[in-house]
Write a structure and sequence with these properties.
375 residues, alpha+beta, Porin, 2 domains
């Protein structure tokens, strides 16, 4: 009986030992499954990590930002997109702009143009082109200031507008003017005048000339209430006495300006209007005035055209008013050795009437003149 009890006891002990071993193996299997799931979760989370903010980004999944491991462009290009041919980016533009801070306007304009040549598809092209225009305008202003600056200071130099042949001179300068006009069939006119400059804006003069109203000695005074070398503009009031067969005065106001066109071509424009008030033998007001345009393709040559208007008896009830309006065109020559400060201005011109009534002294003329400056 006892041996049976001992046998069954050993059998039960063996079964208990086997069950414990199996349960232990089951626990290990469960732990391995948990580890595998945790690893999968870590992989999924790594895909969602911000690689730019996470300080351990280089350790995730064994990936590295070392050069040669994947597409790595360097730290300075980490935030930049790939560029196409002829394109730039913000960093390239910013660095180039900083390099130009110490350059003068001319060098900066050239450098920006070279930049556009290198990066024709630059996203900053509109801003660069606007900057080039600003630099060119600045350079143009500097050329104007240098051209007309003298010892008296900026803006106080002479403007040196083209002098008219038959119209009144509206620019107070110290000079001598001599000229002639020969008309067909029966007209000859001598023009002589000396002008003395008291101040830059004020001058007096005296001379003689023949016109439709006759031959007169004409002393007068001239004052420019606007005379700006910076603006290249002047406005002048003239008052001349007319001493001859009749007595009278000639008040005139005039305006003139110089423009600089492309390729440094100069354009002078002038207009004036006034009256001849004849007092003797009777009061006889007359309208006179005109305009002039001159173009200087070079420093030594200017082509000009001017028109003069002379009319009287405008309210005459016995017919049309007396009129003799002419058109003049010609060419001026300056000193080739020093054209910017030429001492003389020589011109030749042709004059034709385009509207006239009751005067048949000539139907056209040739003319020539010279202005000699004492400045």
């Amino acid at each position: 009986m006892q041996w049976r009890i001992l046998f069954f006891g050993m059998a039960n002990l063996t079964l208990l030992t086997s069950a414990s071993t199996a349960w232990a193996q089951d626990d290990d299997w469960s732990d391995w499954d948990d580890d595998e799931e945790e690893t999968k979760r870590n992989d999924d989370e790594a895909g969602e990590i911000d690689l730019e903010e996470d300080p351990d980004e280089a350790k995730i999944d064994g990936r590295s930002t070392e050069e040669g491991d994947g597409l790595y462009l360097g730290e300075e290009y980490e935030t930049q997109k790939l560029r196409g041919e002829g394109e730039d980016d913000a960093d390239i533009y910013r660095d180039f702009k900083e390099e130009l801070e110490r350059l003068d306007p001319a060098e900066e304009a050239i450098s920006w143009q070279e930049y556009l040549d290198k990066y024709p598809k630059s996203i900053f092209r509109p801003a660069i082109e606007q900057r080039i225009l600003e630099l060119e305008a600045e350079l143009y202003d500097e050329r104007i200031e240098d051209r007309y600056r003298n010892d008296g200071g900026d803006g106080t130099a002479e403007i040196k507008l083209t002098q008219p042949v038959f119209l009144s001179n509206i620019d107070p300068r110290q000079k001598f003017h001599a000229g002639f006009e020969m008309g067909f069939p029966a007209q000859f006119n001598i023009m002589l005048d000396y002008e003395h400059q008291l101040k830059r804006e004020l001058s007096v003069h005296g001379g003689m000339r023949s016109s439709v109203s006759g031959t007169y000695f004409e002393p007068g005074v001239k004052y420019a209430f606007i005379k700006s070398a910076r603006l290249q503009m002047l406005s002048t009031a003239n008052l001349d006495l007319m001493l001859g067969g009749n007595l009278g005065i000639r008040p005139t106001v005039g305006w003139g300006k110089r423009f600089t066109l492309k390729n440094d071509v100069i354009l002078d424009a002038m207009a004036q209007v006034g009256s001849e008030l004849i007092f003797s033998p009777v009061l006889d007001p007359r309208l006179q005035g005109g305009f002039q345009i001159a173009v200087a393709p070079t420093d030594t040559i200017r082509f000009f055209a001017e028109s003069s208007v002379y009319m009287k008896d405008i309210t005459w009830d016995r017919g049309d008013a007396f009129a003799f309006n002419t058109f003049t065109f010609g060419i001026k020559f300056f000193d080739q050795k020093n054209p910017g400060n030429s001492k003389y201005e020589v011109g030749t011109a042709t004059n034709i009437p385009y509207y006239y009534k009751y005067w048949r002294q000539h139907y056209g003329s040739i003319a020539g003149d010279i202005n000699w400056y004492f400045e």
